[in-house]
Amino acid sequence: MNYTKYVEAISKLHGVPKMDKEYELYYDETNNARIFRLTDDGFNFNEKAYFILGGLAFEKGKHPSKESLKRLIGKLEIQQNSTEIKFKHIQQKAKVFLELISRNHVRIFIEWLYDNKCWIHYSYRDNFYYSIVDIVDSLEESSYFGIEFSRELKSALYSYIDKDKDWFVQLLIYFDYPNVKNHGQFIDQILNWFEKIDPDRYDSNIEYLRQCLKSHRKDILIFLKGNKDRVMIKNYADIYRNSILTFYNATHVFDEELEIQKILDVDIIEVFGKNISYEFIKSDSSIFVQLSDLTIGILRVWMGFLESHSICELKELFSNLSATQVQTMKQFQAVMCGSLWENFGFKHGSGSNQFEEKINCFMEYDF
Q: What is the Cα–Cα distance from 231 to 43, expressed in whole angstroms?
């Protein structure tokens, strides 16, 4: 299939630079729910565990030297009977981020990334946020003032839902969201919920949504019909495809994921008359895919850390780090920022503005 128009849309809407540069991108993924859906009790997967796809990126042919890789593997002290390096080998049972960056092998790996000026690329998805934004996107008024305004509306709704999540999830279950049959009743329930919001929590974005929904009481919410009952995300193939298309001249090497591969291989991905190069391989055949496993493991714990704290709490925790933690944090921050300086397209997220603000807080903090 010819995806040229899709690539042109990415360029126009997001202004990603150097989309035609010949990068080498290596991938692993974490928190793959396979399918994200509603059950009678809530979700089939922890909605706070963001799906993440990404890993290491290099300019074509410019990798860390074999000697540097050999020294790293030696320092990580991987057992001889291990066929490959896994995140668990450096995690050493650390559960939270501040514990993780205190582990010797994690510090060694981050220092290696820093010393070798490695780039990290990643895409993440907040499953619940991604699932509820169809409510906003179904309202044509949400697009009147551009993408950023639409994001503000989605983030405002997400924030309000988060304060009353149990009730809202039960609402979604009752209506078999996102395959709503009675749209008028669904809208009325949300409007009644808005009416109960504490006036002290007034938000102009919520008021805008309330007025939009009132005007659509007799309408069909376009993105909430023709779907499978309670299936909010049927797979994550679109994230893989988006990564491939964003850097259409790059070489993309994914850790083996058979179900995703079947979906992508249904048609040839063609851009500007050229087939895009990508492959799925067993991780034990590529050291850079293995190191991407370590990288994505660190990002998973890092994002969990950001998700579980407010910005005020994050700054308080940052101000009380040990000297060793500060050094590792600075190096990790430098790698993350350096990657975005090379190309801000190395980061792609489907998440709320509130979470993006936490990422920015980390990136800008003076450790």
A: 10
